[in-house]
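INTERNAL AUDIT FORM
Audit reference: QA-55
Scope: verify that the stored structure record matches its stored sequence.
Auditor: D.O.
Record contents follow.
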Amino acid sequence: MFQKFLTSFMSQQWEDLLFLHWHIDPKPLASKLPDGLALDLFEGQAWISVVGFRLTQLRIKPFTRIPWRDFNEVNLRTYVKDSAGRRGVWFLSLDSTDFLAALGARMMYGLQYRYASILGEVNRNTIGYSSETTLPSAGIKAELSTDCDLLREPFRASRRGTLEYFLLERYRFWSARKFQGNLSTGLVCHSPYKFVQLPNAHYLGDLFKCQGLEEPLTAPALVHYSKGFPVTASAPSWVFGIAGHANHR
């Protein structure tokens, strides 16, 4: 029963997810990964993505009756696997408009969240997020948007083996807990993405530069939008270890 409690430690809703994807030179990107993780390549190419979305209906056990306000997030992520071949994502940065959520994620999961001001715009023709960090690093900006009549686009699921599946269907993430000096991992569970592929998008910002990477000079190679879905997330793996369980899948 306690393992079930930890496996569904948090519930939330992800809404209006906008993904901007680029293929990238793997050498500088691989240098940003901790020991124990390697880039996961698709047909020999490394990928990196800027993602903006809205998080609502957050509930954390055992305090599920306490309501949590909705907030926006912008993150920069890449695609990795560990020595056991398990695939997931590594977040190079995560920005959130909720200070307590950012602080809690840093302390609990070791995810390097930053507190930020993020404005979201979603309407019939536009979806976009505009972000600027406040703490602990101020002034890191990001703007991502697309102009498209989303309601006229057919939503679909990805097929296993396709690039869309490789980029979207990721259910594990890792983080590095500084005081422990090792990797921690967590799992998310949700229905498969139903998405539209959009013809173009705009990005401008400092997300790559602040990680020691070159900002992209071209438009994203792929753009995806999803209306969202309910999500459950596990407690981090170190909590399973204390409890004598394993969160492997």
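Auditor finding: record pair retrieved intact. The radius of gyration is 17 Å.
Action required: none
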